[in-house]
Backbone:
């Protein structure tokens, strides 16, 4: 069976709008990522205990698991109006780091998750998972992932 879906270009636009002293201080930036042929979009609950949102593998995709070399864009948006979440970005060994995503805010990764980060030095490591924990009450989180 041959696919009927053609690769497409993902366009991501970030717009900041603020006027100070009568002058527009905002900006607009656009990123295009070509050859996208898979997208994953889902709203999931992030509880107050750690939960795996996304896993990465070198070759074996599956439910919630993405091929690390093919992943090009990840957006995780906190859909709550009050509570923040903590995202634990995990890597092969010492890469783990945690970021806070406030209510209504997003965390974005662009590009491959191969050789993505290292908190302890200059040797970049592959990501293995992204986990979330809500601060005081369960939070809805929107995931959007695009792959080639």
Residues:
């Amino acid at each position: 069976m041959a696919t009927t879906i053609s690769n497409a270009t993902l366009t991501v636009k970030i717009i900041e709008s603020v006027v100070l002293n009568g002058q527009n201080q905002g900006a607009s930036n656009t990123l295009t990522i070509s050859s996208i042929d898979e997208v994953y979009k889902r709203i999931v609950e992030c509880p107050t205990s750690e939960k795996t949102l996304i896993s990465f593998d070198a070759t074996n995709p599956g439910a919630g698991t993405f091929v690390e070399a093919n992943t090009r864009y990840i957006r995780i948006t906190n859909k709550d109006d009050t509570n923040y979440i903590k995202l634990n970005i995990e890597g092969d060994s010492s890469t783990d780091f945690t970021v806070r995503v406030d209510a209504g805010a997003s965390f974005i990764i662009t590009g491959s998750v191969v050789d993505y980060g290292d908190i302890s030095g200059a040797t970049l490591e592959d990501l293995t998972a992204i986990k979330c924990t809500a601060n005081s009450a369960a939070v809805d989180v929107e995931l959007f992932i695009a792959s080639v």
Summary: The chain has a mean pLDDT of 91.
